[in-house]
Design a protein that fits this description.
This protein is mainly alpha-helical. Helix content is 76%, strand content 0%.
């Protein structure tokens, strides 16, 4: 049941990140879930490095959104370089 909650929270975090950063991004239901879950994993490690979380703690919902936004920014940077 834990993996289902992670997928649901990942979808919600990815959807909020896409809403907060409008523009042309990879679309689709699966990509939104992966964006949110990836954002959560990214911010879990980044949060531990910055001292927001203790060892073994994971990012919360807000941290997942921040991580997803970071992934969207990186996607847009690499997309612009690829188009040139």
């Amino acid at each position: 049941m834990d993996i289902i909650w992670k997928i649901i929270i990942g979808f919600l975090a990815g959807a909020v990140a896409k809403f907060l950063m409008p523009g042309k991004d990879p679309g689709g239901f699966i990509i939104t879930i992966l964006l949110g879950v990836g954002g959560s994993v990214l911010f879990s490690y980044l949060g531990q490095f910055l001292g927001f979380y203790n060892e073994g703690e994971t990012a919360g919902f807000i941290g997942s959104i921040v991580g997803a936004i970071i992934l969207l920014i990186l996607y847009r940077i690499f997309l612009k370089k690829k188009e040139k």
